[in-house]
Amino acid sequence: MNARKPLKGIHHVSAITGEAKRNYEFYTKVLGMRLVKKTINQDDPSVYHLFYADERGNPGTDLTFFEIPMAGQTYEGTSSISTTSLRVPSDEALDFWKKRFIEYEVEHDEIRHENGRAMIPFKDFEGQRLLLISDEHDTGVEGGTPWEKSPVPAEYGITGLGPVYLTIPKLEKTEQILTNVLGFTKQGSYQREKEQVDVYETGEGGNGAEVHLIERNDLPPERPGRGSVHHVAYRVANEEELHKWVDYIKDLRIPNSGFVERYYFKSLYFREPNGILFELATDGPGFEEDEPLESLGESLALPPYFEDDRKEIEERLKPLDTKE
């Protein structure tokens, strides 16, 4: 069997929104992220798939949303990606963000410290559970570069995805997939109020390469809706490496999607035993395959295999102006 290189960290997190326009306004105008791709859900071309990231959508910086207008309320629980974190450069940046959240009336908690890092939890307009985490003492995977046209000053800007938090009913089942299958190592654990949080890392480690597991067997499974997370993706260097993972997951008899062409990257999907959807995604080709860097996200981008249906797709989508 071909040896596989370690996963490089978090690739992207994909969540659900019911309102693409308000979603766009919040993540670009309040959080200052760049919309690097306005495209469609390739499994349901009738809805948008929006990608927010750093200046060019570098792997490890993408927070993406499927627009599902009919999505109901999320009922929080286990078997869920319960918090998505976003990296900022310093502890000082969190003071800036606290003031900004007050100014824009964003629901947020106080700045706190966990696992030796400063952070501030907050929610978007649909209750999406988020937190900003400081890279002040981070020595792991490098973050991205904030967009120069962002309304947020670069020294405080969001530089990518931080640790992803999974709430699960049976810790050992997810731990086994992370360590025995995906090659993560346990980095340690810490206490959050009455909960123990176990930390796993891959690649160069640090904020951009961690998964935090929270075991809760006193809650029902989450009922997802607007404001919930659909899946988390981990970074694979290239297509050759991904094919090795496809063969490996198949050999382990883990039900999976097989190789999936997403045009901007290549993917493999499977569910871990607690029901959370994992994806392995390649670092390239990237978002400049069909748009120049300077105008990323301004027009509806369709992978070539959808171009013949562009007219029909555009007629079904509600117009979304992203050239402001």
Summarize it.
With 324 residues, the chain is α+β, with helices and mostly antiparallel strands.
Plain-language structure description:
By secondary structure, this protein is α+β, with helices and mostly antiparallel strands. It has one domain (10-316): Roll (2,3-Dihydroxybiphenyl 1,2-Dioxygenase, domain 1), CATH 3.10.180. The protein has helices spanning 20-30, 91-103, 171-181, 239-251, 310-316, and strands spanning 10-17, 34-41, 44-53, 62-67, 80-88, 112-114, 117-123, 129-134, 160-168, 185-192, 195-201, 210-215, 229-236, 260-261, 265-271, 277-285. The strands form 2 sheets. The chain has an 8-stranded mixed sheet. Strands 6-7-8-5-9-12-11-10 form an 8-stranded mixed sheet, with helices on one face. A hairpin with an 8-residue loop joins strand 3 and strand 4. The termini are far apart.
**CATH fourth-tier homologous superfamily:** 2,3-Dihydroxybiphenyl 1,2-Dioxygenase, domain 1
CATH class: Alpha Beta
Strand numbers in spatial order across the main sheet: 2-3-4-1-13-16-15-14
- For the termini, the CA-CA separation is 51 Å
Number of strands: 16
Radius of gyration of CA atoms, rounded to a whole number = 19 Å
Query: How many domain modules?
Result: 1
Strand content: 25-35%
* H/E element sequence: EHEEEEHEEEEHEEEEHEEEH
The helix/strand class is alpha+beta
Low-pLDDT parts are none
Count of alpha/pi helices: 5
Question: Can you tell me the CATH architecture?
Answer: Roll
Write down the CATH topology.
2,3-Dihydroxybiphenyl 1,2-Dioxygenase, domain 1
- Biggest sheet, in brief? 8 strands, mixed
* Gross geometry: globular
The helicity comes to 10-25%
The residue-averaged pLDDT reads 96
